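User: Design a sequence. Structure:
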């Protein structure tokens, strides 16, 4: 059904409809500042279309794997040997260990997250590649892009034959922030939000969208950087970049990555006002520093290691085995692959064409070496370098491709794009999804050359 629906959508893009749709989309992108830095978020004329069964597959698979990951995170907080072993497998830094041991005031280790996956067009394969459990972006972008696409002439024609269900998630993010604040005892007595990240980032326009959305729901909100925080008289104070506004904040919507925060402030990080207020319970931070337990790419190494899988339910284990690729922290010594003992480095050298290397704690495609796109010499250099700092080696997954239309010099050009499906999780429940397109293997808008599109669940109307 889905391939037929896509073909029908493309058939609607005659020159007049395509031109009018592109003009309407361009106007919406500029009106809502839907740009990643200076690049428009989307460069194509079709959203991602899913069947109800595919969306249910995403919800079911991500939910079970998310629950299994939370089981591991809970074990990692325990003092017994298995908890210490899990922490060593995650390759946490000394400062991360300190931050993780502070209680955030609420139980969920990752209140909102995103599972980055590949779901094939026919729904036969769903495989995960990363778990962005700390600072997932694009919820507001996706919601507003959905509104923009629904107004396109081509979408209105398509809606005459198919029902379209958008997947908004901003309301869940707002509810998640408030729920964490209430669970922590409503510190400060009034919810006041700071959206926290560095200044002049390409994601800044999304912060504006969230500030406006929170304001529409009656919540005072300020966008600030970690340098603009002070902990004074038991209150976390945030000021605007120009210094004209300062307000006490009780909820920190933390978009800054812990790794970048720690790198920036070095030895002074633990004494930073954010950490002081967090440790004192003067505010809630969402996601908390405990999200690092799930965010490290090595979480997939723990999930796929047989020695820890006895902690999962039968359904969770089946989901991990079906959806999570074999992953290991790069280090000398033996491990298991499909139940057999192997020397990890020798196995990695001999299986370059189905493996890739990733930094344990980075984003935007940085530092990744794709074995099947590298020479043996390049792979050996990358593998040797990976021994010097935490890296994971991961097995290749089935990559999803779909045709997407773009208007080029006034003509509709339909080309194959790599397509990922990145559901948003609230706890371990899926609601909404990011979708990114690319013409290169590193499918990440941050890395350049990508496009973001909204996701709709469709059903044919009776005719």
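Assistant: Done.
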């Amino acid at each position: 059904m889905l391939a037929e629906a896509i073909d029908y959508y493309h058939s609607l893009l005659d020159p007049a409809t395509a031109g009018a749709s592109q003009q309407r989309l361009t106007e919406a992108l500029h009106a809502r500042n839907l740009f990643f830095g200076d690049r428009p978020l989307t460069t194509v004329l079709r959203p991602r279309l899913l069947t109800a069964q595919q969306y249910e597959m995403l919800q079911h698979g991500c939910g079970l794997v998310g629950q299994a990951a939370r089981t591991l995170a809970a074990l990692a907080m325990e003092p017994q040997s298995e908890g210490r072993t899990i922490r060593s497998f995650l390759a946490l830094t000394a400062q991360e260990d300190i931050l993780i041991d502070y209680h955030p005031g609420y139980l969920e280790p990752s209140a909102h997250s995103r599972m980055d996956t590949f779901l094939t067009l026919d729904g036969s394969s769903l495989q995960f590649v990363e778990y962005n459990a700390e600072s997932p972006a694009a919820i507001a972008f996706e919601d507003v892009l959905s509104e923009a696409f629904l107004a396109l002439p081509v979408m209105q024609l398509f809606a005459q034959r198919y029902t379209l269900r958008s997947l908004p998630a901003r309301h869940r993010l707002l509810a998640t922030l408030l729920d964490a604040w209430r669970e922590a005892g409503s510190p400060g007595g009034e919810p006041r939000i700071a959206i926290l990240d560095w200044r002049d980032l390409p994601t800044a326009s999304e912060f504006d969208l969230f500030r406006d959305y929170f304001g529409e729901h009656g919540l005072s909100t300020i966008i600030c950087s970690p340098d603009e925080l002070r902990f004074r008289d038991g209150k976390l104070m945030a000021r605007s970049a120009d210094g004209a506004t300062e307000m006490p904040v009780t909820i920190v919507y933390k978009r800054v990555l812990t790794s970048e925060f720690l790198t920036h402030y070095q030895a002074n990080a633990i004494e930073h006002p954010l950490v002081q207020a967090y440790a004192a319970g003067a505010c809630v931070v969402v996601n908390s520093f405990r999200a690092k337990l799930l965010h490290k790419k090595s979480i997939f190494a723990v999930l796929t290691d047989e020695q820890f899988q006895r902690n999962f339910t039968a359904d969770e284990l089946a989901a991990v085995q079906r959806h999570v690729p074999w992953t290991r922290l790069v280090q000398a010594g033996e491990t298991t692959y499909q139940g057999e003992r192997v020397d990890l480095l020798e196995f990695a050298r001999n299986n370059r064409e189905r493996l890739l290397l990733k930094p344990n704690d980075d984003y935007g495609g940085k530092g990744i070496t794709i074995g099947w796109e590298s020479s043996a010499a390049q792979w050996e250099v990358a593998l040797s370098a990976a021994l010097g700092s935490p890296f994971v080696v991961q097995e290749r997954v089935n990559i999803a491709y779909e045709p997407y239309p773009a208007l080029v010099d006034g003509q509709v050009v339909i080309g194959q794009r790599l397509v990922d499906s990145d559901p948003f999780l609230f706890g371990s429940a899926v609601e909404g999804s990011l979708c990114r397109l690319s013409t290169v293997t590193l499918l990440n808008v941050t890395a350049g050359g990508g496009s973001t599109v909204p996701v709709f669940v469709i059903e044919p109307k009776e005719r």
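DSSP finds 16 helices and 24 strands in the chain. The chain has two domains: 2-295+400-460, 326-395.
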